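call fold(seq) -> tokens
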Amino acid sequence: MLKPFPKTLLALSLALTLGACAVTRVDPPETASAPAQFKEALPNAQVATQAVPDAWWTLFNDQVLDDLEQRVVIGNETLKASVAQLSAARATLDASQTAVYPTVSVGLNGTRAYTAQSSATENPANNLALTASAAWELDLWGRLSMATQGAQATAHASEADLAAARLSVQSALAQGYFSLRAAEAQQELLQRNVLAYQKALELTQVRYRSGVAGLTDVLQAKTQLNSTQTQLADAIAQRAQLEHALAVLLGLPPSSFSLPRTATLPAAVAVPASLPSTLLQRRPDIAAARERVKAAYAQIGVTDAAFFPTLSLSATAGYGQNSIANLLSTPNLLWNLGAGLTQSLFDGGTRKLASAQTRATAEQVTSSYRQLVLTALQEVEDNLVLSSRLQDEVNSQTEALQSAQRNLDIVMAQYRAGTVSYLNVSAAQSAALNAEATLVTVRNRQLAAVNTLLKNLAGRWESS
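ret:
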């Protein structure tokens, strides 16, 4: 009568296991939709097909930047933390996968006992046992399999988090590098103007001593020189701070890092006129958010499985007697098989609350995922319009600078001839300085827009 029992139980368990996921599984919502094309892309333009290299920053054609980008993925501490987080997620996944298998253990136990009921002539009793036991919780309702799916989604999310962190650090390094070169260009510009203003002051002092110019001209020249020297000091401090920030990104103390000065910004990169919104599917942060949605909905299946009974199988086999001699012999063999079915009847609403909590968490994670997609669309649209309009600004500002420099040359010649006051010279010098400083700022903004656009598109803008 006992022989058919294990076979019947296993057959029943197999049937229940095959239908387990159908009982507690809750499918996540569909992927967030996006328009076919970005709003700020030029209409009827051909979609970009030119391949962007994996090292997307090489588009800026700057060897120093290329070297820094190679170093940052090795030394950056934020990336090291993301790597550790990924290792932890993979370990959790491995642990969840092993939970569906039986656990087997072996033991060697020895006891020596004496009771008060024993006669005075009896010796204490010995008992030795060498046993092996196995236990297996059958995954009737998909609790273990859904937990594994959730852990797998979390591991995938951690992988995407690492890729997103790497992309973010690379983009931050590029932007910091552009800002540093812009600060150097501003510093060089201010140094040139300080020298020019010193010569203008000397000329004004000579004219004042000759009685040609008034004291107000001298004071105006001194004011302009001192103001420009103040701006120069600020530009020097700004460049130093940016260099310190780059050192920290590289995982180095600022005192051990320095960059040679070039005061040259990289050339601008042309942005394609049209980009498909499907490029957002490559973004690792969006992929990570989507995987977390899957993990949250898998957790719903785990908590819902608590409403159903759990079935566990157990088995023990071994040898036992009162001495170690001939312990491993047939007369000393012992074994047992067992099954346990457990169902919680009353828990004060704990299971209902856990189920409601996991559903609320899944809705929250889903909304966060959809908001991330919307924010990503906005970021791309913003930098698309910036990258196209800033090129127009560069062209206009270049013309403005040329006009300001020509006007300054004319006014300086007039001042030497005594036909205009120094006030005219001061205004022309300020206009030329502001025009060139603005051009440097616009070029830096243009590089930042392209850099951010590449980050928002996961370093790619060609259609797959």
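The first helix runs from residue 4 to 18.
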